Amino acid sequence: MAINTSGSISTYLSNIYEAALLTAREQSIMSRLVTVWGDGQGMNGRAISTYSGGTFGAIAETAEASAQAFTPSTSGTLTPSVYAAAYQLSDMRVASDPFGVTADAGRDLGQLYAVGVDTNLCGTAIFSNLTAGTVGATVTALLWSTGVNKASARIRAQKAPGPYACVLAPAQWYDLSSSATIPALLQSQDLMAEFGQFYQATWSGINFYVDANITDTSGTVIGAMFNVQSIGLDIRRGFRIEPQRDASVGGGLTELNASAVYAYGLYRPAFGCTMSGASY
């Protein structure tokens, strides 16, 4: 009895996976700007906790320092979910155009994953709930003075260490970069190499990025400035593609199942500031 397998296209499956990982790496901005955990598995939630701090005070030369409390308190939980997408490639399509379809499938699966992660991390559920404050206004051009400078001041007031990431929608960066008065911006060669076109400039301890995954809501977009600890990404199972063979359909096909398991949410929301502005 002859057994039909996916051996005829097995050499292409690795190309799909490599292309997907490359695209995911190139398109994922936010996942490289936040706190990432990769030490857990399964679907149990991760409790977000912070410690109560003590204080330094003067004591007499002969006095013994008093012990102070150092206990954690839970501020929230990150709950993981399974995220997935699938494509079916028939043998006939692969045979007709193997290199084109595998490259296209790989790039698209990787982009779907990257866009999904970024959209979650820069969505209004995250950016609008940072607690250092809100700068700018709805349907109004973002400004350096009352936008960037004010956001930086509010985060610094929380004693958040720098540097800060400022992730903006394209329209927000347009307003800043076309302003009549622009500060002396610098550019980091290292950040340009890592983030490509998404990295824009550096100024006063702030690295500026543009993320088109920020959504437009009634003419307003919500960006944010934040310290790396303000947002968390808990990866329980990394991005992967598994082929599933079905030789009974149309002469044979292979289903490409892409999936990942992760949780995301606010970690230290006081270390981030919401930045509202106009879209175009």
Index terms:
capsid protein of prophage fold; globular; four-stranded mixed beta sheet; disordered N terminus; single chain; 7 helices; seven-stranded mixed beta sheet; 280 residues
Structural overview:
Helix content is 29%, strand content 32%. It has two domains: 7-50 and 72-121 and 232-264, 2-Layer Sandwich (Major capsid protein gp5 fold); 132-231 and 268-278, capsid protein of prophage fold (2-Layer Sandwich). It has seven helices and 13 strands. The N and C termini lie far apart (63 Å). A hairpin with a 2-residue loop joins β9 (216-217) and β10 (220-226). The strands form three sheets. Strands 5, 6, 7, 8, 9, 10 and 13 form a seven-stranded mixed sheet that branches. A four-stranded mixed sheet has the order 1-11-12-4. Strands 2-3 form a two-stranded antiparallel ribbon. It is of the alpha+beta class. The longest helix has 24 residues, at 98-121.
Proper CATH architecture of the largest domain: 2-Layer Sandwich
Please mark out the parts with pLDDT under 50 across 5 or more consecutive residues, or reply none: 1-6
SSE order, one letter for each helix or strand: HEEEEHHHEHEHHEEEEEEE
CATH third-tier fold name of the largest domain:
Major capsid protein gp5 fold
The share of residues in extended strands comes to 25-35%
Q: Span from first to last CA?
A: 63 Å
Mean pLDDT: 88
What gyration radius follows from the Cα positions, in whole Å?
24 Å
Helix percentage:
25-40%
Tell me the structural class: alpha+beta
Largest sheet descriptor: 7 strands, mixed
Number of strands: 13
**How many helices?**
7
Shape: globular
Q: Give the total of domains.
A: 2
Instruction: Report the CATH C-level class of the largest domain.
Output: Alpha Beta
